[in-house]
């Protein structure tokens, strides 16, 4: 019994240490951000590998989520005879919720884990120690460009996801199920607000992007310098980021929905 | 340092596509009557009961949306609801005896403010108050009245 308690206490201590370490690490990154902007080459490399190379996944994801969403909501709306609001229904869900959340989850799976294992492998093969020996700050050179690259990429990816989703809903709704095209678009204009829906969606995805890329670089930077350590860093990045994004989404949605 | 060109092209196209998507979402969702080139002016009106009117509900003239409700408060001294709205400045010739009523789109749709222009020559100015108001018609009250009516009385 006492042993189980002690185990619990130890793992709680470990959790608190990691959590605190994460906060300190985030604070440590902040002063580097302005300096990093002076070297846009490093950042654009990261935007390319984290953002541009995720495009195919995000576009496919968005398109198919839009297709399914239109099919599914048509099925419900047809009972109330209000299939005209299919467009508004689908695009509000996409712009506010599905775009930011699913894009960030896909990003965490594709790019967050890649960052964690890349930085973790640098740690394991002593490349980070080598940089320190050459008086190059590894946080400046390795960590911050990846962080900024991710934080810039996710809002753009989320917007692309939502746009593809609306397009998918249009294809299914108008061309497959015969919803009137004019009603589809005018209902979107009527119901979806540029500031309250699109703006909140972008704000959300920026928060998610910052969290996802912070988590990736943190796990990678402090990975145990072994093969197992690197793989655990990648796994933990995906798991913790996903849980964290879903939790944050609930909080932000609760704060921003006008009619709750 | 010149970043290698394949990367630059990739990044450039990615960012253009992202910004293009934002633009697409914004232009598809922003109804044009919500932003007006000529600006807006404020009006307010006091109602006994506003039903379920919400901030951002449309203000319409002859069925066309010309403004939005911006704020709803309660005047504690009169026990009435104060509805503030902003009207497109193109419609700056509403007479001072215009009356405002709260109407419903469809049977169960959202509430909106309907303006019926009066006959006066003088027009409402910025920050003016609409004096003539009609409260929201409460469907549940109407139903209650009819149900309690005995079949005998007409």
Poorly predicted tracts of residues of chain A: none
N-C termini distance of chain A: 46 Å
* Rounded radius of gyration of chain A (Å): 21 Å
What oligomeric state is this?
A: heterodimer
What is the overall shape of chain A? elongated
Biggest sheet character of chain A: none
Report the order of strands and helices of chain A: HHHHHHHHHH
Condensed summary:
The complex is a heterodimer of chains A (260) and B (154). Chain A is an all-alpha fold. Helices cover 85% and strands 0% of the residues of chain A.
Structural features:
heterodimer; A: 260 residues; mainly alpha; 10 helices; 85% helix; B: 154 residues; alpha/beta; 2 domains; eight-stranded mixed β-sheet; 2 helices
Topology (SSEs and partners):
The complex is a heterodimer of chains A (260) and B (154).
Chain A: H1 2-29, H2 32-36, H3 40-51, H4 55-77, H5 86-124, H6 127-133, H7 138-176, H8 181-191, H9 194-221, H10 227-256
Chain B: H1 5-29, E1 40-47, E2 58-61, E3 64-75, E4 80-88, E5 99-104, E6 111-116, E7 128-130, E8 132-134, H2 139-148
Parallel strand pairs in B: 1-7, 2-6, 5-8
Antiparallel strand pairs in B: 1-4, 2-3, 3-4, 5-6
Please characterize this protein's 3D structure.
The complex is a heterodimer of chains A (260) and B (154). Chain A has one domain. Chain A has helices spanning 2-29, 32-36, 40-51, 55-77, 86-124, 127-133, 138-176, 181-191, 194-221, 227-256. The model of chain A has no long low-confidence stretch (mean pLDDT 89). Chain A is mainly α and 260 residues long. Chain A is elongated, with a radius of gyration of 21 Å. Chain A has 10 helices and no strands. Chain B is elongated, with a radius of gyration of 23 Å. Chain B is 23% helix and 33% strand. With 154 residues, chain B is of the alpha/beta class. The N and C termini of chain B lie far apart (91 Å). Chain B has helices at 5-29, 139-148, and strands spanning 40-47, 58-61, 64-75, 80-88, 99-104, 111-116, 128-130, 132-134. Chain B has an 8-stranded mixed sheet with strand order 7-1-4-3-2-6-5-8, with no helix packed on it. Chain B contains 2 helices and 8 strands. In chain B, strand 2 and strand 3 (64-75) form a beta hairpin. Chain B folds into 2 domains: 1-30; 36-143, no CATH class.
